[in-house]
Write a structure and sequence with these properties.
The complex is a heterodimer of chains A (119) and B (586).
Chain A: E1 2-6, H1 10-22, E2 26-30, H2 33-42, E3 47-51, H3 59-69, E4 74-79, H4 84-89, H5 91-94, E5 98-101, H6 106-118
Parallel strand pairs in A: 1-2, 1-3, 3-4, 4-5
Helix pairs in contact in A: 2-3
Chain B: H1 2-7, H2 17-22, H3 28-98, H4 101-105, H5 107-120, E1 124-131, E2 136-140, H6 154-162, E3 164-166, E4 178-186, E5 192-200, H7 202-209, E6 218-223, E7 254-259, E8 265-272, E9 278-285, H8 286-289, H9 291-380, H10 388-415, E10 422-425, H11 427-444, E11 448-452, E12 460-463, H12 464-481, E13 487-495, E14 499-506, H13 513-516, H14 536-546, E15 550-556, E16 560-568, H15 579-585
Parallel strand pairs in B: 11-13
Antiparallel strand pairs in B: 1-2, 1-5, 3-4, 4-5, 6-9, 7-8, 8-9, 10-12, 13-14, 14-16, 15-16
Helix pairs in contact in B: 3-9, 9-10, 11-12, 12-14
Classes of the chains: A alpha/beta (119), B alpha+beta (586).
């Protein structure tokens, strides 16, 4: 499973990527939507974990663009806002597969990724 | 005083409920006083005026009627009295013309004449013939007066000179009040004789007592010297001097008002009876005559009193009721405004909290990842001592904690305003504090925010909380108007010695010209679909006024909006002005 992590907090995504790789998950990370799209040109991913709020191009816009290229890709959103229930109620609406509220527990993230991929 | 306390309406001591919301002083007591005064003036004054006019008119007409009535009575009585005297004079004239002196000197003849006269003319007591020397030559009547000499008496001298004479009432030889009518008849040469008749005053008395006199009336005759010729009921007896002054001569009947020696007001009607020494007088007591009028007057005054009482009660009740209603409505309005202000504040706090949560969650996520990473290092790697990555991770944890702490500090700073009012503030700090909460949104939406505070801007004394709320509202508003990628320029300028102005200029969508006048009105919103309450700017307006400043807006649709907040360097907010804190605290 290849995972792309996008969040404007570099320390967050880089650490998260490294920790995922400890657990045998191949994870790449970028801090902006532009970088993510650039990366997609050369690599392919099964799943993308996006921050909802990204500078310039928001997480939702990024998801749309990525989905255009890779319709099979799955998406999990991370957000600093509110509670998980609030966002998952609207998950279908935004086309996301799942929302996670920061701070994210890595076990929960892996579990969700597996769950989403098996759908 | 206890009753006053009980009936005192609730608005009485409540002077500035409206001031808390509208900024103006609504003095309900003044409104009440003005209402009561004005309504009293326009109702009671005309009522009193009309009653007074009516009263005077009625009193005058009552008096006029009494005077007229008295005057008519005097005239009629005078006619009767003078007719009585004339009748007797004419009778004597007839006797003296019809009989020669010799016949009249015959006692039988004179006696027969007296008898005949008595049959037709009452009151004639006796007849006498007196020769020019004053000797009574013949006398018929009940008294023994034959041979009396009258030459020394006043009436004899008068009749000698004037030919006809009617005397005052006097006692004479017989010692009974009577009057004398005498007629002189010339004989050949200088010689003459006089036919004299005495008349009882009984007839006079009768005449006068037959009059129906209202008002404790008194009718009597006096002579020109004021001596009573007939008995009076209240003003003395026959031949006594009258207690009233002798009225001056007038050919016609006169009526006048005067007071008796006891001070009782009376109406006096009088008439001089022609060719006699008599004045007919009718005296009536004014108090008695005016009794019917007094009754009417009492009724009028009672009616006036009752009307005024009713009017006063209705006005007091009505004014109290209405002002109470206004007061209650005003109080409700104030309460609702407070509630809305409060809920708006709560909404701001909610927005703030959401922003803060987001801000804090990011560093927390880093902390969490870093902590997890450290654990992973222990779990997945064997060497960890002097591991540079581990040290970096620890540093990162510390810096993330710092970030969280900074956010928490900022939040505390922002929330602290609830218990502080006036303090010395650096405007730039306050603006940056507020922007601290908006910074991320600006970043995400690519909004560039510039803050220009020149060095010559002094620190101001003002209410930190209110300033924060004002700036937050204005900046929020600007952000709502801005498209992504827009810009907001905040510029502080000094205005004279006592003012600073802050302009918040955005290049957003602007405000339509039709709306610009209404934007500070409560409940006016163009963002209702997006959850705007329409209270933000109206509350901002109120807050700016409360700290002694003013807020203006210039806008061009499509080009942008500039809000200018002018603040005094020293805000003179009243001590009790911090009502918001009380509400939040309560």
């Amino acid at each position: 499973m290849r995972v792309l992590l996008v969040d404007d907090e570099k320390e967050l995504v880089s650490t998260l990527a490294e920790r995922l790789s400890f657990r045998g998950i191949d994870a790449e990370w970028t801090v902006s939507a532009a970088d993510a799209l650039k990366l997609l040109e050369t690599q392919s991913f099964d799943i993308a974990v996006l921050d909802v709020k990204l500078p310039k191009i928001s997480g939702l816009q990024l998801k749309k663009k990525m989905q255009e290229k890779y319709p099979a890709m799955k998406f999990i959103f991370m957000t600093g806002h509110g509670s998980e229930e609030d966002f998952n109620a609207g998950a279908a609406e935004t086309g996301a597969d799942y929302y996670l509220v920061k701070p994210v527990k890595i076990e929960a993230l892996i579990e969700k990724m597996n769950e989403v991929l098996q759908k | 005083m206890k009753i006053l306390e009980k009936i005192k309406p609730e608005f009485w001591d409540d002077e500035d409920i409206g001031a808390k919301v509208s900024g103006g002083l609504s003095n309900f007591r003044r409104i009440w006083q003005l209402t009561v005064l004005l309504t009293l003036v326009v109702t009671v004054f005309p009522l009193i005026f009309m009653t007074l006019v009516n009263y005077t008119a009625m009193q005058a007409s009552a008096k006029a009627e009494i005077l007229l009535h008295t005057s008519r009575l005097v005239s009629n009585t005078r006619r009767t009295v003078s007719f009585f005297l004339e009748e007797r004079r004419f009778a004597l004239n007839f006797i003296i013309e019809d009989n020669n002196v010799e016949e009249l000197k015959d006692p039988f003849r004179l006696g027969a004449i007296l008898e005949n006269m008595k049959k037709g003319l009452s009151g004639v007591a006796d007849l006498g013939i007196i020769d020019s020397s004053g000797m009574q030559r013949n006398y018929v009547g009940p008294y023994k007066l034959g041979g009396k000499n009258y030459s020394g008496q006043e009436w004899f001298k008068e009749v000698t000179e004037q030919g006809v004479y009617i005397s005052d009432i006097f006692l004479g030889f017989r010692n009974i009040p009577h009057l004398v009518i005498a007629i002189k008849q010339r004989l050949a040469g200088d010689s003459f004789y006089v036919l004299r008749a005495s008349v009882d005053i009984e007839r006079f008395k009768e005449l006068l007592s037959q009059l129906e006199l209202s008002g404790m009336g008194d009718a009597f005759i006096i002579n020109h010297r004021g001596i009573l010729q007939t008995p009076s009921r209240y003003h003395g007896n026959v031949l006594e001097k009258i207690s009233l002054p002798v009225p001056k001569f007038s050919a016609a009947t006169e009526v006048f008002e005067t007071r008796t020696s006891e001070g009782i007001p009376v109406i006096v009607g009088y008439a001089y009876i022609t060719d006699t020494p008599f004045i007919l007088m009718i005296v009536k007591q004014q108090g008695e005559l005016m009794k019917p009028w007094y009754k009417t007057r009492t009724k009028i005054l009672w009616f006036l009193g009752a009307s005024i009482t009713v009017i006063v009660f209705v006005i007091l009740g009505g004014a109290t009721y209405l002002v109470n209603r206004i007061h209650r409505a005003e109080r409700n309005r104030a309460m609702i405004m407070h509630k809305m202000e409060y809920s708006n504040k709560m909404a701001s706090l909610g927005r703030l909290a959401a922003g803060v949560a987001h801000e804090i969650n990011n560093p927390l996520a880093i902390i969490s990842e870093k902590a997890g990473f450290i654990k992973d290092m222990f779990t997945f790697k064997d060497i960890y001592a002097k591991d540079q990555k581990l040290l970096d991770t620890a540093d990162c944890i510390t810096s993330s904690v710092e970030r969280c702490a900074a956010i928490t500090r900022r939040l505390l700073n922002f929330a602290r305003h609830t218990d502080v009012s006036i303090q010395t503030l650096d405007l730039k700090t306050v603006i940056l504090e507020v922007l601290g909460f908006m910074g991320k949104e600006a970043e995400y939406r690519s909004i560039s925010v510039s803050v220009d505070v020149p060095d010559d801007i002094p620190k101001i004394r003002s209410d930190r909380g209110k300033l924060q709320e004002i700036f937050l509202n204005v900046i929020n508003n600007a952000f709502a108007a801005l498209n992504d990628g827009g810009s907001l320029d905040i510029t502080v300028k000094r205005q004279g010695d006592s003012l600073v102005s802050l302009s918040f200029a955005d290049n957003g969508c602007g405000i339509a010209e039709a709306d610009i006048k209404r934007i500070f009105e409560p409940f006016f919103s163009t963002k209702t679909q997006k959850g705007g309450t329409g209270l933000g700017l109206s509350i901002t307006y109120g807050l700016v006024k409360k700290i002694g400043g003013r807020i203006d807006v210039q806008s061009q649709a499509g080009k942008g909006t500039t809000f200018t907040v002018c603040l005094p360097l020293v805000s003179e907010e009243k001590e009790g002005g911090n009502t918001d804190a009380g509400i939040i605290g309560g």
